[in-house]
Amino acid sequence: MHEHARRMLGTQFNLVEIPDCNIQARLSQDLRASIRGVACRTRIDSQFIDALPNLEIVASYGVGYDAVDAAYARSKKIIVTNTPDVLNEEVADLTVGLLVSVVREIPKAHAFVRERRWQTSEYPLSRLTLRNRRVGIYGMGRIGRCIARRIEAFGLPVAYHSRRPADGVAYDYFPSLLELAHAVDVLIAIVPGDASTVKTVNADVLSALGPEGVFINVGRGTVVDEEALIGALRTGTIAAAGLDVVADEPKVSENMLALENLTILPHIGSASVATRTAMADLLARNLIAWFQSGAAITPVS
Ligand code: NDP
Q1: Which atom of ligand 1 is nearest the CA belonging to 269?
Q2: Would you name the residues annotated as active-site residues?
Q3: Are strands 240-243 and 214-217 parallel, antiparallel or unpaired?
Q4: Ligand 1 atom 22, closest CA
Q5: Looking at ligand 1, which atom is closest to the CA of residue 144?
Q6: What's the pLDDT score for residue 20?
């Protein structure tokens, strides 16, 4: 757990820390019965919840709470909280940074200088450009809107897909992801990793993006059919991709690592000291508010 959250929680509660979710093996029955709240950044499944008979609240570190079995928690009347909004701008910054890096080959150009090759040759022109592109955003939620604002400032038109049109948003709306992919040549995924989004970025969607297509994923790795993505990058069905998330994190397949036109980041969307501290703060305030007033600050819906 983040040190800031540990410090805040330590002033209010007795803390029991465990390094993984193997709670049955790690804690005695008496100790488990005394636990009323959980702060987590790991998987919380139904067995974990069942092992804590007096649990009232699970405070998850991050806005995506796919690691927590929230439906099961709800069935037991246990509150789940996440850390929305405080990371929006940070994640949006990283997203456009990754997009520009992929299109203008910034990591490769840096390696070129570091390998001292600049002294003897010029870096080749980037095949791709952001100019004259049309950008599709898959997920026009809190972070999607922040990404869209940045893309607008780049002078590029924005379109989007979500299950319903987003309130107060004037960008072109596409009721299906496939239609959106046909209409754009950059697709940015920023949807949650739940059952409704699993492998929705599939071979058809990538093919619709086209040979100049660029795919960026900052949502969850499960959203992508990774075999289809590897195939599309290998055959030139799309031009390039950038991922901040992969399905089986932190494992990255050798097939992915071998691709020249794929840039992978180690899930760092929100990972600055300032933003992670803000997330830790909100996590701790949720637990404190719950036990002081009976109302959490940011419960998931
Ligand atoms: P929001 O809930 O605000 O937005 C989610 C958006 O996705 C909404 O527009 C929603 O619209 C849309 N959506 C959800 N399910 C579907 C679906 N099945 N089909 C189409 N659209 C869908 O979430 P945030 O913007 O705060 O965060 C989004 C996700 O980004 C998080 O859940 C997390 O997984 C990921 N994330 C990744 C980070 C990183 O470090 N890489 C950091 C932070 C977040 P509608 O419901 O109308 O369909």
Answers
A1: 40
A2: 220, 249, 267
A3: parallel
A4: 162
A5: 25
A6: 85
